[in-house]
Design a protein that fits this description.
Elements (H helix, E strand, L loop, with lengths): L2 H16 L1 H21 L7 E7 L4 H12 L3 E2 L11 H5 L5 E5 L3 H7 L3 E8 L3 H22 L9 E8 L6 H23 L1 H8 L2 H6 L4 H31 L7 H25 L3 H18 L12 H7 L3 H15 L7 H26 L1
């Protein structure tokens, strides 16, 4: 290595080691991404909420039910099932599947007759619905094999499946509503993350500071145009999803608009917070991408079920706004879920938005104060 290059390399190494931001990128990010990818990317789906309606009420039906719940695949729902309208439990996300055992199951099993069990599945989640189908058949076959000698043919007992909300199990109907949340979060955070940093870089922040306006006026004045722009973006993305991907929309448009406004406000607050913490537009954009895209894809239920993640990541997912918006958009677009059943998601988004706005406002005032 030439002598001058060696000196420059040594100087650059000192710069890296003395810069906390570089050290975070060099050492903390690989560890964090390995942790997230290693634990969050889990395609083994377990503990699926399955409700059972047993009209047969025989030892055989109870043994079959125990077979389902003793496996690691299924667990009992926390809420009672509405027997007259079981699909309401699917719409309210109280269960992913409902197994119905009709009368005559034990008799058909004893005589070796054909018999069909009913299985209603929530098709709004492709991964879960496919897992319910596969695991239910597996548990039933294991139950039948346990009751018969190895060389005897299995009786003709099958599972008749009915998939609601997405009967064709089209992946676009599952991913596109979630994609709307990720795109909105990224665009909103990117738009506002550079707004204050740009003022700092161009030197116009000093002009704003000497103007007869308060810090709150500056903050609100900078956010409002982006709220409108991000909201229009959200409507465009939803319209595009409807036209190009045939994503159904069976819920209330007003409820969706309400969720979108709250979600956009939370996303813009993230951008303002980033913008008030950094000095350049380039760093602001990098922070916005890292802090919005990675969590909203990995920890929001966009691809991987949150329920299968470690407890630590499940807890972290509660501070990711995309989690609540994805749950709401999938429920509204595919199921037509009422706003009453989505109040927990709306409340969580409002709380997150309020916290983010307060933190962003305080950081902004502290920086210009």
């Amino acid at each position: 290595m030439p002598g001058n290059a060696r000196h420059i390399a040594r100087k650059e190494m000192y710069h890296i080691l003395r810069d906390p931001r570089s050290l975070v990128i060099v050492f903390a990010m690989p560890v964090m991404m390995t942790f997230l990818y290693g634990y969050a990317i889990n395609l083994d789906i377990e503990h699926i909420t399955l409700a059972v309606i047993d009209y047969d009420r025989t030892p055989s039906s109870r043994t079959l039910i125990d077979g389902f719940y003793n496996s690691t695949y299924f667990e009992r729902p926390e809420y009672d099932i509405d027997m007259s309208h079981p699909e309401r439990s699917l719409r309210a996300r109280h269960a992913t599947g409902i197994l119905t055992i009709r009368r005559g199951f034990a008799e058909a099993l004893a005589r070796g007759d054909d018999f069909s069990l009913g299985l209603m599945i929530d098709g709004s989640d492709n991964l879960l619905s496919a897992a319910v189908q596969a695991y239910a058949n597996g548990v039933l076959i294991a139950f039948l094999k346990d009751r018969l000698p190895p060389d005897q043919e299995l009786p003709g007992i099958t599972v008749s499946q009915q998939i609601l909300y997405n009967p064709d199990l089209k992946s676009s109907r599952y991913f596109v509503p979630a994609l709307v949340a990720v795109i909105l979060l990224m665009i909103s955070a990117l738009l506002t993350s550079v707004t204050i940093a740009r003022e700092k870089e161009t030197g116009t922040m000093e002009q704003l500071l000497v103007a007869p306006v308060s810090a709150r006026d500056i903050l609100v004045g900078k956010i409002l145009p982006y709220v409108l722009i991000a909201f229009i973006d959200g409507m465009l993305v939803l319209l595009f999803a409807k036209i190009m991907f045939s994503v159904p929309f069976v819920g209330s448009l007003w409820v969706l608009l309400l969720f979108t406004i709250v979600y956009v406000s939370a996303s813009l607050s993230i951008g303002i917070l980033i913008s008030s913490l950094v000095s350049t537009q380039q760093v602001a954009m990098m922070f916005a991408l890292v802090t919005t895209m990675l969590p909203s894809i990995m920890l929001s239920g966009f691809i991987f079920p949150i329920k299968n993640m470690p407890i630590v990541l499940q807890a972290l997912s509660h501070i990711v706004p995309a989690r609540y918006y994805i749950e709401a958009t999938r429920a509204l677009l595919l199921k037509g879920t009422s706003v009453v059943l989505l109040l927990p998601q709306l409340a969580a988004l409002l709380v997150l938005t309020g916290i983010l706005l307060v933190i962003a406002g305080k950081k902004f005032k502290a920086r210009i104060g």
